[in-house]
Request: fold
Amino acid sequence: MQDKISRRTLLKGGLIAGACIPAFGLIANEAKAAGLTPLSPTDPTAVALGFVTNTAKVDDKKYPTHKPSQRCGTCAQYLGKPGQARGGCNIFAGHTVPDTGWCSAWAQKP
Ligand code: SF4
Reply:
């Protein structure tokens, strides 16, 4: 019976564990995002900042500096990844906003 653990076995175990760590991180991030709820346009803070789910619906008289190219997906506060339909927002903690949305806190993503 061989009780010693070979160097090869330790190395294999380390490689498998190292490969699993990023996967666990992704799962944790998705679980965290799953706890977010879609931001309602009637949320008091959303109303105060003129939030809309579609940037094409912005009242340009009320927000004359708004441009059609401005949307959550191009905002510095947006936490979603490119191509995602929704993502978190630094301004509205606990909620997701649509890539197509907009509010008056919009700032160009660097
Ligand atoms: S701060 Fe940016 S990402 Fe957040 S709702 Fe406003 S425009 Fe969208």
User: Anything to note?
Assistant: The mean pLDDT is 83. Residues 51, 72, 75, 77-78, 89, 91, 97, 101-103, 105-106 surround iron/sulfur cluster (CB under 6 Å).
